[in-house]
Specification:
Pfam families: MarR_2, ROK. GO terms for molecular function: DNA-binding transcription factor activity. The protein is of the alpha/beta class. The protein has 3 domains: 17-88, Arc Repressor Mutant, subunit A (Orthogonal Bundle); 92-204 and 377-392, Nucleotidyltransferase, domain 5; 216-371, Nucleotidyltransferase, domain 5, CATH 3.30.420. The protein has helices at 17-36, 41-48, 52-64, 129-144, 184-192, 201-212, 272-275, 278-284, 295-301, 305-329, 339-347, 349-352, 360-363, 377-392, and strands at 39-40, 68-71, 85-88, 92-99, 103-110, 114-122, 152-160, 163-165, 170-174, 179-182, 196-200, 221-227, 230-237, 240-241, 333-338, 367-370. Residues 1-14 have low confidence and may be disordered.
Length: 400
């Protein structure tokens, strides 16, 4: 399986064949250091199949661009001259923005999936795109204040709880937010002067999980993520994300799970995200939206009969959607992110029964896992959206 996946569009590399090959090799080396962490030149030589001299030249060029640096290993007694270790520069960052119905999350994300700083901006009502631009711009200025000399910003990545046209970052529809046809990427670029890209939040969280979490190295898995704005997800088959004709595939939140159920924001009734909600679970255990990080521990420790009954009911409904996805996509792994991971962990044996009604041949080799770094998935996914542009052509993307 390839260690990278084509989750977003790439900008074609211009120039002659030799120049294109050099840029491709630069991309390969930087991508490996980003995804795998610090690597020796010897490891890069083995992983790329290039000769040592070529790898040395590529590392030197990436270092000159300010994207990596080399250091001798600090431990180990290896005979002979030790191979230098290539590290991603810690000051190369992406700005991450995730608007939700109850808050706007803004963060700084370094290469290799490191969240360096983050802030949550509370919102009494779903913010408008103009609100997001205004509040996020102020938060960005605050996060960068005093760090300008040590940071180089690649751009802004935005995780939108809705359908996004990735080619230009236009939000086609985000029903929970009340948005339609909003040129969010352009608005943010004009306000901040940084290039900005936007994509569906669930797809970005899935990308983070695929590169740095439980989905790393897995060719076939499905992903569900739940948050304040609903439930989304996606499927990777044969190592590639199934995106659909227009990029809107993976709306697991609109799987039908209950007859004569609650009306969903999409207009239908009985959708998964209308029946299984973070808000309902928070209310049941007496937590405010800003305290969602405590939900898992509260659910797991609660012995209240009403809370246990709610957990059981929501797991039963989630099981319908999970079973459908397993039957359709035949994965080896189901990853649950956001509050769905909390719900699954709190269910104990009930959680283990999520696959019980799937077709036996489809379910017998499937495992279920909670997402890694659940609280930072979306911020890391935003970073991946930005860093994919840098890695695609390291020599051409201007750093700020």
């Amino acid at each position: 399986m390839s260690s990278s996946r084509e989750f977003v569009s790439r900008t074609p590399v211009q120039g002659g064949a030799t120049d294109q090959l050099r840029r491709s090799n630069l991309s390969n080396v930087l991508g490996l250091v980003h995804r795998e962490g610090p690597l020796s030149r010897a490891e890069l030589t083995r992983l790329t199949g290039l000769n040592r001299s070529t790898v040395g030249d590529l590392v030197a060029e990436l270092a000159e661009l300010g994207l990596v640096y080399e250091a001798l290993p600090t431990t180990g007694n290896v005979p002979g001259r030790p191979s230098p270790i290539v590290h991603a520069q810690s000051g190369v960052v992406a700005i991450a923005i995730n608007p939700e119905v109850d808050a706007i999350h803004v963060g700084l994300v370094g290469m290799s999936g490191r969240v360096l700083a983050k802030v949550r901006l509370e919102a009494a009502t779903a913010p408008t795109p103009a609100d997001v631009v205004r509040l996020a711009s102020a938060a960005i200025a605050g996060l960068l204040s005093g760090r300008e000399a040590s940071l180089r910003v690649v751009g802004i990545g935005v995780a939108v709880p809705g359908q996004v046209r990735v080619s230009d970052g236009t939000v086609r529809e985000a029903t929970h937010m009340g948005w339609a046809e909003e040129p969010l990427s352009r608005m943010l670029s004009e306000a901040t002067t940084f290039p900005a890209w936007a994509a569906n939040a669930a797809n970005l969280a899935m990308r983070a999980e695929s590169v740095f979490g439980a989905g790393k190295g897995v060719d076939d898995f499905v992903y569900f993520i739940g948050g304040a704005s609903g439930i989304g997800g996606g499927a990777v088959t044969g190592g590639r994300l199934l995106s659909g004709a227009a990029g809107y595939a993976g709306e697991f939140g609109h799987s039908f799970v209950r007859s004569r159920g609650t009306r969903c924001s999409c207009g239908a009734t009985g959708c998964l995200e209308a029946e299984v909600t973070q808000a309902g679970l928070l209310e049941a255990v007496g937590l405010a939206p800003a305290e969602a990080g405590l939900l898992g521990s509260r659910l797991a420790s609660s012995r209240d009969p009403g809370v246990r009954a709610l957990i059981s009911e929501q797991l039963d409904l989630l099981a319908i959607a999970v079973r459908t996805a397993v039957n359709l996509f035949n994965p080896t792994l189901v990853v649950l992110g956001g509050f769905l991971s909390d719900l699954y962990d709190a269910g104990g044996r009930e959680g283990d029964a999520l696959l019980s009604d799937a077709i036996r041949s489809a379910r017998e080799d499937v495992r279920i896992e909670g997402a890694a770094s659940a609280s930072d998935q979306l911020l890391i996914g935003c970073g991946e959206l930005v860093f994919s542009e840098l890695i695609a052509d390291p020599a051409s993307l201007l750093l700020h």
